[in-house]
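WARN retry 2 of 3 for item q-0093 after timeout on previous attempt; input resubmitted unchanged.
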Amino acid sequence: MISPVQTTLASTWLGAFLVVCALLGGCSDAPEGIAAVDDFDVQRYLGSWYEIARLDHSFERGLEGVQANYSLRDDDGIRVANSGISVATGERSEAEGRAYFVDSATRGHLKVSFFGPFYGAYVVFELGPEYDYAFVAGNNRDYLWLLARTPNPPQSLKDRFVARSAELGFASDDLIWVSHPRSAAN
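OK item q-0093 returned
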């Protein structure tokens, strides 16, 4: 049975995504000067990822243990399931969306929606050769994520992410480093 706290968290998570999607409505372009990776293999990208770092935004504020899971949809899109644990309550909330390639399925540039026809950009601008990490931007330099297959990637990767992000004009000094409590990383 779903508790009132879980329902409230899910509603809050979804509501925040709706506001952002409405504000971004159709903003699926990559930020100027940022190119999506080529030779993208969606099959290798599918599965679970841990959010290691992000720029602050309302729809993930106060969350730790943030994870994303990508799987194929029947309509050639990608199912996006994001979840995180509220620091205030300890409850996990989840939001489900869908993503589609903007140009081609071999380029890491997608549009993602968590509500109706409103899409935001999802631009993979660096990807580990083993698909073990991804640097991801939104449609502008306010949205930035470091994703990894493990909750504890090497410091050298984190340093590379900070340097590359700063080089591209992101506010890398403002990055939030996401905590992954033992229970969240399972």
